[in-house]
Amino acid sequence: MTTTTACLASDLTLVAAARRYLAARDEAAPGGYASSTMVRIALDRELGRVLEANERGVLIELAHDGGFLMAADDDEAPRLASLCARPGCGVALADARHSALFNTGGQTPFVCNTYIYLGDPKPVSLPDERGRASIAGLDLRRLDESFADVVCAHYDIIGPQFVREHLRAGQMYGGFTESGELVGFIGEHEEGSIGMLRVFPEYRRRGCAQALESLMINLHLARGYLPYCQVALDNEASHALQAKLGFTRVPGEQCWVDVA
């Protein structure tokens, strides 16, 4: 799984301002984690460049795909939104209500809840030098580019080009039966969230999703990351999975918009 040090090229004054703003939001939030947690994680992991930061908001440009992450007070949100309203780009918003500031060409924003994992490592081994692990009879393996077609057949949110990039970077894992049949897969998005989880219909309700996500949790913990994921509001099965795994939901609703 790869990371980038692009954030090191940010103006250090902006990085410090971003940390102060995000820390203040966390301090005011129940449990110490605000709706802007995803932005803080991207900052901590140096996944992008801080473009703007002050006592009222933060805007980060992701290094990998040129998307943006924004957390802002209501009076600062319009200005920051104007700086990242590039046609064709994606913008993640810590506060879903700010989606109204963007022209989406009529496309409905992806509104979600963000979950963070604050627990202990799961009972699954970390991948060995071959990229393999196991749990409850399921063989977990790092996927290579030869699996691009099957991943694209079951997951079309990010497109074939990005799927292949994820696979080449070693960012995706699959679950296999003892007979070698692929049951599903999981990966990590550019902003650092656990995602791209799919379990094929014939293998659902067997604990496969829990096993795959447990592996990703342990990978993130081993690297010193705060594991997190984002779930669409109406995805009841995924909400139940995060609760079963011991995730905590941060306040509010977050969203992604595709700028038209």
On the 0 to 100 scale, the average pLDDT is 94
- Strand content is 25-35%
Report the biggest beta sheet as strand number plus sense, adding barrel if it closes: 8 strands, mixed
**How many separate helices?**
7
Bulk shape? globular
**Poorly predicted tracts of residues:** 1-8
- Count of distinct strands: 13
Order of helices and strands: HHEEEHEEEEHHEEEHEHEE
Structural class: alpha+beta
Q: From the alpha carbons, calculate the radius of gyration and give it in angstroms.
A: 18 Å
- Termini separation comes to 31 Å
Oligomer: single chain
> Which bin fits the share of residues in helices?
25-40%
Describe the structure.
Strands 1, 2, 3, 4, 5, 11, 12 and 13 form an eight-stranded mixed beta sheet that branches. Strands 6-7-8-9-10 form a five-stranded antiparallel beta sheet, covered by helices on one side. A hairpin with a 2-residue loop joins strand 6 (132-135) and strand 7. With 260 residues, the chain is of the alpha+beta class. It has helices spanning 12-28, 37-44, 77-83, 148-154, 159-168, 208-222, 236-245, and strands at residues 48-54, 57-62, 68-72, 90-93, 110-117, 132-135, 138-142, 173-176, 182-188, 194-199, 228-232, 247-249, 254-258. The protein is 28% helix and 27% strand.
